[in-house]
């Protein structure tokens, strides 16, 4: 702060008259202002004004270092229109369309337009981020390296790339940040799982609890029986979270000791009660007490959610037994298993445990139909249960099951159910559309649009309005060939609905149309660019 | 130069209109779209539809829809559609409803040009001089009050001003409004924004108050000032410049004016628009200020990144910076013409110092830097020239500029306020990019 400002802050009443300036151009300028008829305050103000102008006129630039430029200085091949469409797709309202557009860009061997890179890099959705990282291009990676908030886009690439040698990986493992070390671990587990585990074992005890947990989670890549001793060792870790992760990983190893113990425990719970000539029937006998040795396998004594202890133990143990154990043990089909336990008091808990086990262990190709079909039928029936929580669970489970089906089966399974179910609105359609690969097949898209149009034409109840919320997803899912069908006028029977329902449906149809239009325009721009090449 | 969506957005009265226009900028919504060198037209919707027409000479528009907004969403949509899919319009002879409209516009422009040429009505010089004298005395009284108020302020000192309510500044500012010195009023209101804003606010406030005092000092000696500085001080105090004064100035410059940038600010009940233009041949800068009520568009359509082949009439003053479009119906130039900017930051700062010498109260001036890159030091962004000289830059578009330039040199246009550069536009790989 200079002397004049100091005096202005204090006030001339306290600091006295303005001191005569000494020398220099601004001082000469100040001194040339006639002071005689002026008050002390006016003289000070004039000097402040003259100094301000002098300083502004004499401002000198800073000397600043340059940023290393991106090596590619060619013009961006995208049109402005395409950039603007993509920017719209990355906005909050249309973000569901963005992954599909990114996929299209990748398929066409292009990268994102430069103008939208900041918007793309600001995205928070993990699913979209994984797509973005693949179509960032050199410019995107160069830009991401300049902003620490965008490190997610390059962290895996900067630390590990396809050509990294083993010594280089080891160096990065020893010297890198936790994010880089995680990337190295994932990479080395792909190449040599044993080496990766050995590196982790070397440093594990010296890492922080949170880092230990994160690194242990990365061991999931190529997890195998050789990892079991290390995971068992982790069961004694001082961090509860590390122990839980170790248990979860052990439970996914079908041959691990933990799973074997779970199999033995579960054998006591389910008993076959039918004679050879009768229909297959099972009885469930849940444990009465909590044996102390369960604690070592991480089985919690008390449930965290609102359910009984026995039901919690049953669910916990059965969900950690590979589903095939049961068909092998009772020499029956999954359908027989389900039918056999259906009428037992504990039947729903057992079936839920089996469902969770399917989710945990996945289904072998040959088991998809064997297990998937009866499970699907059971949970479809549960959609009509009179308890809303069961209906919600059924919806989520069906969505999970659909996700486990091979991609080519998903659409047909869903469409079959949509056609067979007497009341399509009971299906949580938005959840069930999520696992479908986008864009949908034309057959599925046309059938879906036809069903939606029928529902709108023939029904005017509120359930239809709720069901139609999936139109937004349809806008992101239907393929280009079905765009004309989607854009045809919709007969909404607005006269027979109340005002609010009509408005809601109009809005949903508008959302569908907006997505279709955006995608159509973008495809056209992409076609133009591809043709120009 | 093809018009971009960003540029179309600058024509719209509000963001809602832009969004609504985007939604209907689809060929399916339009019965027919036609274009010829003078106009673009289309029929929107079914049946007789809305008749939408756009004058391509100056992007003026008309639509038969009942919307009170101007331009309406249909006009904006037609422009949007044409900019995105030029093939959607058929090149043909315009129908009568378009050609008649274009002819009327051209006739009106010609009439207005004629009117401008006609000698003004005789005025009562005596009454005019009396009114001017009354106004001058009113302003003088106000300025005397402000001078005393500033003296009191300096006697008390600036310390402790953070605790003063807004009314502390508002009261003298309103007194300046009553004295018809609105320029001084807005400078006093600015003080309220400086106080407590940042750790260096005492320095900035002291400098600001000092410049107000310099202005008062100049006004007190206005009769001794050169004619240019005399006009400048009058405008800064709050006198508006009449058409007659601009004509008397008789400084009309014809050139191909490139719109280097534009800034629109929303006030309580109106919007103000600052458009910076640069002449291709003259390399002269011009500032066009326009005002409009919240729902209406500005009188002249000025689109950043375009070149206008027109004549500008400059306001009197020492800077000769502010101007108005003199010839109505100015033509947009299709060819891309970008005037050269300052080669280095030093060259620009020398130019800025020269401008300050002419007008020490200058708020901001346009800045066109020929070949700069962006760089960051200690979290602060700078523009950097080939000599490693840097000026601080303040924008929310920094990452976009960086993404598009890739750290390579480009031409940047902006406003320099003495402390930081606010980018308004840039030319990257030959394309104009808006930065606002």
UniProtKB/TrEMBL annotation, chain A:
InterPro entries referenced in this protein's UniProt entry, alphabetically: ARM-like, ARM-type_fold, DUF5691
The source's domain of life comes to Bacteria
Annotated region Disordered: the residues are 1-28
Q: Which SUPFAM superfamilies match?
A: ARM repeat (SSF48371)
Name used for this protein in its record: Uncharacterized protein
* Taxonomic source organism: Thalassoglobus neptunius
Automatic annotation (TrEMBL), chain B:
> Annotated region Disordered: where?
109-128
User: What are the SWIM-type domain coordinates in residue numbering?
Assistant: 50-83
- The signal peptide, as residue positions, is none
Keyword list, A-Z: Metal-binding, Zinc, Zinc-finger
Q: Which InterPro entries match?
A: Znf_SWIM
- Which GO MF term does the entry hold, naming one? zinc ion binding
| Source organism superkingdom | Bacteria
- Report the protein name in the record: SWIM-type domain-containing protein
Native organism is Thalassoglobus neptunius
């Amino acid at each position: 702060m200079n002397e004049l400002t100091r005096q202005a802050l204090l006030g001339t009443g306290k600091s006295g008259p303005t001191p005569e300036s000494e020398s220099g151009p601004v001082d000469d300028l100040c001194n040339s202002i006639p002071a005689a008829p002026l008050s002390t305050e006016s003289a000070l103000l004039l000097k402040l004004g003259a100094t301000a102008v002098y300083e502004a006129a004499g401002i000198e630039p800073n000397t600043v270092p340059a940023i290393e430029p991106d090596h590619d200085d060619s013009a961006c091949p995208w049109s402005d229109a395409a950039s603007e469409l993509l920017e719209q797709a990355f906005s909050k309202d249309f973000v569901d369309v963005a992954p599909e557009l990114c996929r299209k860009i990748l398929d066409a061997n292009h990268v994102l337009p430069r103008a939208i890179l900041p918007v793309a890099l600001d995205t928070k959705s993990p699913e979209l981020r994984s797509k973005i990282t693949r179509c960032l291009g050199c410019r995107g990676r160069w830009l991401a390296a300049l902003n620490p908030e965008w490190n997610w886009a390059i962290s895996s690439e900067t630390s590990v790339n396809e050509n990294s040698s083993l010594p280089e990986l080891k160096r990065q493992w020893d010297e890198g940040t936790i994010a880089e070390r995680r990337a190295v671990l994932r990479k080395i587990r792909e190449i040599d799982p044993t080496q990766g585990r050995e590196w982790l074992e070397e440093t594990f005890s010296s890492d922080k609890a949170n880092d230990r947990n994160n690194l242990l989670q990365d061991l999931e890549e190529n997890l195998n029986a050789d990892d079991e001793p290390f995971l068992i060792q982790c069961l004694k870790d001082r961090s509860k979270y590390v122990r839980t992760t170790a248990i979860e990983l052990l439970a996914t190893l079908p041959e691990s000791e933990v799973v074997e113990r779970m199999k033995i425990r579960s054998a006591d719970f389910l008993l076959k009660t039918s004679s050879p000539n009768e229909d297959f029937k099972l009885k469930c006998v849940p444990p009465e007490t909590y044996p102390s040795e369960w604690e070592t396998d991480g089985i919690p004594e008390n449930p965290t959610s609102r359910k009984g202890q026995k039901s919690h133990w049953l669910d916990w143990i059965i969900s950690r037994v590979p589903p095939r154990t049961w068909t092998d043990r009772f020499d029956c089909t999954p359908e027989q298993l389900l039918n056999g336990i259906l009428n037992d008091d504990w039947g729903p808990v057992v079936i839920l445990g089996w469902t969770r086990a399917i989710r945990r262990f996945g289904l072998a190709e040959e088991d998809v139909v064997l297990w998937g079909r009866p499970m699907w039928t059971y949970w479809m029936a549960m959609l009509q249960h009179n308890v809303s929580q069961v209906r919600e669970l059924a919806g989520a489970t069906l969505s999970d099951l659909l996700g486990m089906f091979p991609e080519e089966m998903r659409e047909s399974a869903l469409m079959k159910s949509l056609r067979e179910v007497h009341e399509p609105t009971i299906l949580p359609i938005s959840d069930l559309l999520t696992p479908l690969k986008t864009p949908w097949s034309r057959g599925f898209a046309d059938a879906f649009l036809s069903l939606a149009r029928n529902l709108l034409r023939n029904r005017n109840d509120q359930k239809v309005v709720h069901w139609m919320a999936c139109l937004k997803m349809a806008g992101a899912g239907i393929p280009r060939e079905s765009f004309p069908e989607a854009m045809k006028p919709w007969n909404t029977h607005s006269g027979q609905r109340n005002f609010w329902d009509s408005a809601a449906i109009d809005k949903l149809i508008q959302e569908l149309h907006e997505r279709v239009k955006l995608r159509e325009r973008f495809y056209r721009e992409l076609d133009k660019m591809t043709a120009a090449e | 130069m093809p018009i971009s969506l960003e540029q179309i957005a600058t024509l719209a009265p509000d963001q809602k209109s832009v969004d609504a226009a985007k939604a209907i900028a689809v060929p399916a919504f339009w019965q027919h779209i036609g274009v010829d060198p003078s106009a673009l037209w289309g029929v929107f919707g079914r049946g007789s539809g809305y008749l939408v027409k756009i004058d391509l000479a100056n992007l003026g528009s008309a639509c038969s829809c009942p919307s009170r907004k101007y331009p309406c969403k249909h006009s904006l949509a037609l422009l949007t559609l044409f900019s995105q899919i030029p093939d959607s319009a058929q090149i043909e002879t315009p129908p009568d409803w378009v050609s008649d409209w274009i002819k009327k516009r051209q006739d009106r422009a010609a009439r207005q040009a004629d009117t401008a040429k006609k000698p003004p009505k005789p005025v009562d010089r005596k009454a005019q001089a009396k009114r001017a004298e009354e106004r001058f005395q009113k302003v003088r009284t106000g300025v005397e009050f402000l001078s005393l108020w500033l003296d009191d302020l300096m006697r008390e000192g600036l310390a402790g001003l953070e605790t003063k309510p807004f009314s502390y500044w508002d009261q003298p500012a309103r007194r300046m409004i009553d004295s018809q010195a609105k320029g001084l009023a807005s400078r006093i209101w600015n003080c309220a924004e400086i106080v407590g804003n940042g750790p260096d606010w005492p320095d900035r406030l002291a400098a600001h108050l000092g410049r107000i005092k310099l202005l008062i000092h100049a006004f007190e000696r206005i009769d001794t000032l050169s004619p240019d500085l005399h006009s400048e001080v009058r405008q800064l105090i709050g006198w508006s410049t009449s058409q007659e004064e601009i004509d008397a100035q008789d400084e009309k410059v014809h050139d191909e004016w490139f719109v280097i940038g534009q800034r629109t600010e929303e006030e309580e009940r109106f919007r103000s628009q600052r458009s910076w233009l640069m002449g291709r041949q003259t390399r002269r800068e011009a500032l066009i200020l326009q005002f409009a009520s919240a729902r209406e568009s500005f009188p002249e359509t000025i689109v950043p990144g375009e070149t206008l082949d027109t004549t500008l009439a400059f306001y009197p003053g020492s800077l000769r910076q502010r101007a108005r479009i003199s010839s109505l119906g100015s033509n947009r130039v299709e060819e891309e013409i970008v005037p050269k900017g300052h080669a280095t930051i030093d060259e620009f700062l020398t130019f800025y110092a020269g401008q300050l010498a002419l007008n020490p109260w200058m708020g901001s001036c346009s800045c066109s830097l020929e070949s700069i890159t962006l760089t960051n030091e200690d979290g602060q962004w700078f523009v950097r020239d080939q000599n490693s000289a840097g000026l601080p830059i303040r924008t929310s578009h920094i990452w976009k500029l960086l993404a598009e330039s890739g750290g390579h040199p480009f031409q940047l246009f902006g406003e320099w306020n003495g402390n930081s550069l606010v980018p308004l536009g840039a030319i990257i790989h030959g394309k104009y990019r808006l930065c606002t």
